[in-house]
Amino acid sequence: MKIKKLFKSSLFIRIILLTSLFVILLIGGFTYKHISNLTNSTRIVVYTYEVNVELEHINSYINDAESVHRNYTQTKDTLYLKSYLIAREKINNSFVQLKELNIVNVKQQENLTNLKKIIDKLFLNFSKTDALVKTDEINTGTFRLFSFEEKVILDSIRRQIKEIIDLENKLLNERQKEYQSDLRFTPLFFYFVLLITLVIIIISFNKINTDLINIKAKNDQLLIFKESTNQSEIIGKHGNWVWHIDSNLFTYSDNLYRLLGEEPQSFEANFDNFLKFVHPEDVDRLKNELDKMIVDEELPFVSYRIVQKNGKIKYLKAYAKAFYGIDDQKRLLGITSDITDEIESFLVLEERNLELERNNKELSAFNYAASHDLQEPLRKIQTFISRLEEKESEKFSEPGRQYLKRINSAIARIRLLIDDLLQFSRTNKPDKEFVMADFNELFENAKQDVAVAIIEKKAQITSDLLPKGSVIAFQIQQLFFNLLSNSLKYSKKETTPIIKINYSKIKAKDEPKLVKATKSNYHKITFTDNGIGFDQKYSEQIFDLFNRLHNKRDYSGTGIGLSICKKIIENHKGFIFAYGEPNVGAIFVIYLPVDTI
Amino acid sequence: MHIVLADDDEDDRLFFTDAFDELKMDTKVSTYNDGVELMKYLNQEDALLPNVLFLDLNMPKKSGLECLKEIKNNKRMANIAIAIYSTSASEEDIEETFVLGANIYIKKPSDFKALKKVLSEVISINWQYHTNSLNKDNFLLRIQ
Prior knowledge:
Strand order of the largest sheet of chain A: 2-1-5-4-3
Shape of chain A: rod-shaped
Order of helices and strands of chain A: HHHHEEHHHEEEHHEHHEEHEEHEE
Strand content of chain B: 15-25%
CATH architecture of the largest domain in chain A: Up-down Bundle
Number of strands of chain B: 5
Oligomer: heterodimer
Number of helices of chain B: 7
CATH class of chain B: Alpha Beta
Structural class of chain A: alpha+beta
Order of helices and strands of chain B: EHEHEHEHEHHH
Structural class of chain B: alpha/beta
Number of helices of chain A: 13
Largest sheet of chain B: 5 strands, parallel
């Protein structure tokens, strides 16, 4: 996204550059035209001036010629005749000059031809008069006629010259006007073009400036990122490397060198130098993977060992993937991570597991001894006592018979304890399978197991419809059995025991008690009885092993039953809570996760 | 009726024979001290095969489970009704002996009267009928 923006920005700058070039060319063109207009107009002025000067010259030469001619007619001095001829020559020169000025206007050309004709006429007249002067016919009528004609011709010459000058000035004015109208809009146009150029320059400056600021900010971010990468590489014990495929060059990050136990950038980054560190047993395998990497341009997760120069062996894991930059250059971006700690802790864990397994085996051997070898002598003692009571009863005194009874009940208690302890240790075994079971069925089975006590105490047991769940079935049955027999055991002597089992499906977030819940939905099953209850302050203690709240002469518990319940609930990742009130009753609430997996 | 017990425990053998003596039934009871002795007897060509064989599981030299396997794999003996007679009633033992084809599982009672009751009940079982309706629930004999 950002890269695209930068692209756009460079395109923008290109457009600005082209526009500016175009504007400058435009300005240049217009300036050229404007200056050439100015030059033209100056030339025209100069030209008109030159024409006028030449005409003035002609005029003055004519005047000269006229005055010289008059002097001649009066003095008859031939010297004047000479200067008169000079004037004539000068006039001819002026015409040559005028011709060289290259007059374009047709009317003006006509005028000039006329002028020449008239001047020729004047000089013809002069020569006629001269002839009369030579023959002294000055006072004749012809002479006077000639003089008069001369005057008329001179007038027409002056008129003609004036006409030419006027026309020339008029033409000058017209042309000047023409250029002026051309030039009038040029400054305005220049001004606008300049304004637009200024705006464009300001916009592009602004754009370039913001781009620069952006690039600077990006650069800063990159620097921060680079530094944080360096630090995270040190903390995370990994390094990165880049293989520039096109140029076949490598770059290793500083920490990659450290992983190898070397100073950063202390040797040239390439395959061969790296392979020198790889454990001899892993070199071939890694080489294989790297060869594949060159073909596939990808390196799947590969683990290998390296040997540092100080002889330490480290476990490394690497992964690499192809990557295309903005410049479309293909690179392979790799990460190499030091997993020595992981491997070592895994090995330690494995060791511990083996130890645990050995301990478990010992424990189950102990369990067997407890179940079988301890029970057997006890059972035999009981059987022998029952034989004594049956066969030899009469031979005992009354206290003797009492002692036998006491011995019997003490042994019964030991056996009960052993049974319960075994039960407890069996619930410890973690390899039980979770299967889908109907809680109603398990509850009925548990009820069957306490049927004798139910009948004996005339207990009333009511239960909601219970759910199905994936559980360790015999443990849940054991749980129901323990809770039922607990309620029956601690019932009040003179009251009918009433046990209610309620069920609801709940959400963990709705139950304030379930702050440590790991699942969202739970089965909540409540056992409520009207027994002797207990003080709420014992609600936690009640689940501890061998913890008894009551005298064992009155109540026959071993203090293991509820510990088994807790253990079973823990095996199912559930929760159990007890609420009690002395002489009112006890409530046991169990929560079992709906999804055990 | 021929009854055989294989049990390494002297006291248990005594209780067993005493119980049959007191039951006063028409039974011939023979006892063997371990699995090896038992199998030695049963493997004799002319041995009188018992109607019911009571088998303790935990015995030296040859355990009850091994005996059970051998008997069930032997065509001549396969039809002997076998009652497992053991101190423990662990899930694993019950499961295993059921699968191997034992007919009933008895947990040794701790009261002589109860012992007599159990034995008389086992003796009077109709094995044909019992074996046909045998399942995991009635495999373990429960004495009320």
